[in-house]
Design brief:
Elements: H1 4-11, H2 16-27, H3 45-58, E1 62-69, E2 72-79, E3 88-93, E4 109-111, E5 114-116, H4 120-139, E6 148-153, H5 161-169, E7 175-178, E8 187-190, E9 192-201, H6 216-236, E10 247-255, E11 265-274, H7 280-297, E12 302-312, E13 315-316, H8 322-335, E14 342-344, H9 350-353, E15 356-359, E16 374-376, H10 377-395
Parallel strand pairs: 3-6, 3-7, 7-15, 8-14
Antiparallel strand pairs: 1-2, 2-6, 4-5, 5-16, 8-13, 9-11, 9-12, 10-11
Helix pairs in contact: 2-4, 4-10, 8-10
The chain binds zinc ion.
Length: 398
């Protein structure tokens, strides 16, 4: 713990131009997630990882990396604390979403005090901020009591294999912050997401005699109806304070071959958003029993269920957690507003880490994944101040 004047003095050392330079360099390294496709133009997540390692190494961190799958590493750097105090991880993902219909996505542009380009707010801005935090700490000769760890994870935008590996194999910390674009809200919770694939199997015949066949699309319609009923039921259950109710719905449907054939096959991808307290096993059991009841009412159809095809845990950091209270308190003092903990939309790496991690970053989800992604440089300055002060608050003991 240190006094507010020290915070202010150190925050004044944050160099906006260095941070923006790191950000624009990272935007110009296209690190689009391959989304399970084989080879993709501008899939350079590994190059992004190498750049981040080089920068961490320049700053004197002990740098490591581990391939989660060949060619897709998690990377991290450790600024060792002088004693065995609590440790903090500042984490972010190395990948971005795609550049479809986004010309010049990887040509960074600065205009109206904003940095534009794919990854500007989701989330290379935070990676740049973390580097600047370390630079200030190092240049000012601050000795931390516990370890500060910077981490870049692979594959957050798809299956989150990076954070799942990190949760299993480390590195670990006592606390974590992820600078996802939360519009500078401090998010201590979010829903998880579980996906399942359901197949409806029928019997194909010439469509002039549909009564001789079994129409798999019609079979799937019963499942879609049952999902609608489940969604209504979810809304009547107890809500999570920050996340609200769990959600469920049909997301992707494929079926049929040609118009003159009764389809014997239809498949449906179900998107189920789970709130803290719900588990993948609960959700599977519920869907299984829902499909079983459809089968009982419509025995001519056969159904199969497979999954989870996507599996992201929910996040729920307790209200009395030190990292949550540290970030909330600092946001209140840096921005002079009455910040309260809220829920993040969508999933993040945080719940896979296995230690208490909150979400706080510049930019909003409206800009992330859009064809006009940007981050306000002023917001980046605020988030960097909060990251720096959180490091002092949690890791600095005189
Ligand atoms: Zn993100």
């Amino acid at each position: 713990m240190t006094d507010p004047d020290t915070y202010t003095t150190l925050c004044d050392k944050i160099d906006q131009s260095l941070m923006v330079e790191d950000l624009t360099t990272m935007i110009s390294i296209p690190s689009m997630n391959p989304f399970q496709q084989e080879v993709r133009k501008n899939y350079r997540e590994k190059e992004m990882a190498e750049f981040y390692c080089d920068r961490m190494s320049d700053l004197g961190l002990e740098v490591s990396s581990r391939d989660v799958v060949p060619g897709r590493p998690n990377v991290w750097g450790v600024l060792k604390g002088k004693s065995n105090g609590a440790s903090l991880m500042l984490a972010g993902h190395l990948d971005t979403v795609g550049d479809e219909n986004y010309p010049g996505a990887f040509i960074p542009r600065i205009e109206n005090n904003r940095v534009f380009g794919r990854g500007a707010c989701d989330m290379k801005d935070a990676l740049a901020s973390y580097l600047e935090v370390v630079r200030v700490i190092r240049d000012e000769g601050i000795e931390l009591s516990g370890d500060l760890i910077l981490t870049g994870t692979a594959d957050e935008e798809d299956q989150m294999i990076g954070s799942k590996d990190l949760g299993k194999n480390g590195p670990w910390a006592d606390y974590g912050i992820i600078g996802e674009p939360s519009n500078m809200e401090v998010c201590s919770a979010h829903m998880g997401q579980v996906g399942y694939l359901v197949r409806s199997l029928g019997k194909a015949v010439h469509s002039s005699r549909p009564e001789d066949g079994i129409n798999a699309i019609e079979g799937m319609m019963h499942i879609v109806d049952a999902l609608k009923a489940l969604q209504q039921d979810l809304m009547s259950r107890d809500a999570h304070t920050l996340c609200g109710h769990g959600r469920c719905g049909p997301a992707v449907i494929r079926g049929g071959t040609v118009v003159s054939t009764v389809p014997d096959y239809c498949e449906l991808e179900i998107d189920r958003r789970i709130i803290p307290g719900e588990t993948r096993d609960d959700v599977y059991a519920e869907l299984y029993s829902l499909i079983s009841s459809v089968v009982q009412s419509h025995p001519q159809f056969r159904f199969e269920i497979e999954g989870p095809t996507i599996d992201v845990l929910p996040l729920d950091v307790p209200a009395d957690n030190p990292v949550l209270n540290s970030v909330l308190g600092l946001v209140r003092s840096v921005t002079n507003n009455s910040a309260e903990a809220s829920a993040f939309y969508g999933g993040t790496d945080a719940p896979h880490f296995g230690f208490s991690t909150v979400i706080f970053g510049a930019g909003a989800l409206q800009q992330a994944h859009s064809m006009n992604e940007y981050v306000e440089i002023d917001d980046m300055m605020i988030t960097t101040r909060v990251y720096l002060c959180s490091v002092l608050d949690l890791l600095y003991r005189t």
